[in-house]
Amino acid sequence: MAGEDVAVSKNLYIYNYVSRVTTNYHNGGSLVIITSGDPQNAWVEYCVRRAEQFAYDKDGELKLALTELGEPNRVIAVAGSEPDEIFVFADAGCC
Question: Is residue 18 within 8 Å of 69, Cβ to Cβ?
């Protein structure tokens, strides 16, 4: 209803740099994870879904699930209506 506060039930996790987020030659990059659960679990589920979609490098995608994210650089509370989602910002490398 109008004027009511939306309950905050999710967090947006920002990881400035993670050593393995893609199967590219320069495989590091940044992550943004929106989830109501554990961001590490969300990352594993994301990697498994990607492996199912990209049959040409299924093993590589599954190995990304082993990446330990560590502590996020920032955590921001977001409205519960935001969908769970992961954004990967791959390292562009040197070339």
Answer: yes
